[in-house]
Design goal:
CATH superfamily: YjbQ-like
Strand order of the largest sheet: 1-8-3-5-6
Largest sheet: 5 strands, antiparallel
Number of strands: 8
Family: Belongs to the UPF0047 family.
Pfam family, one: YjbQ
Number of domains: 1
Organism: Dorea acetigenes
Order of helices and strands: EEHEEHHEEEE
Radius of gyration: 16 Å
Protein name: Secondary thiamine-phosphate synthase enzyme YjbQ
Structural class: alpha+beta
InterPro entries: UPF0047_YjbQ-like, YjbQ-like_sf
CATH topology: Jelly Rolls
Number of helices: 3
CATH class: Mainly Beta
């Protein structure tokens, strides 16, 4: 069992950052050849998703779609911090993802990558990678 902690700084109000290589490095350090890696965000306004890596317009479209579904400002929000939209977006993507490790590599489809999604930036964030052998 291996646990790694990472820091990430986001620049925009809403940002999806590719973090696949960070997790790949953790897997390599652990030496685990077959098992699972769980990535987890301890923040209520940031989480993880797996999605397409080939066309950057996909990330753009996803952020625009999230904003349309959960606008940054709405007259019905009551949360005093003013970031209800970020809580809703994070609930949609979720705080974690589970990745399969086989042969020392993440099992992904050809166009997939792992993204850290910050919906309430810019901020300094952290996330964890737990690697289990088995």
């Amino acid at each position: 069992m291996y646990l790694y902690e990472h820091q990430i700084s986001t620049k925009g109000a809403q940002q999806m950052s590719k973090v696949t290589n960070i997790v790949r490095e953790d897997i390599e350090k652990s030496g685990v050849k077959d098992g699972i890696a769980v990535v987890y965000s301890p923040h209520t306004t940031a989480g993880f998703t797996i999605n397409e890596n080939a066309d950057p317009d996909v990330v753009h479209d996803m952020l625009k779609g999230y904003e349309k579904a959960f606008p940054t400002t709405a007259d019905f929000y009551r949360h005093a911090e003013g970031n209800s939209h970020a809580h809703m977006k994070t609930t949609l993507v979720g705080p974690s993802q589970t990745l399969i490790i086989s042969g020392g590599r993440i099992v992904f489809g050809i166009w997939q990558d792992l993204y850290f999604c910050d919906f309430d930036g810019p901020r300094n964030r952290r996330f964890y990678v737990k690697i289990l052998e088995g």
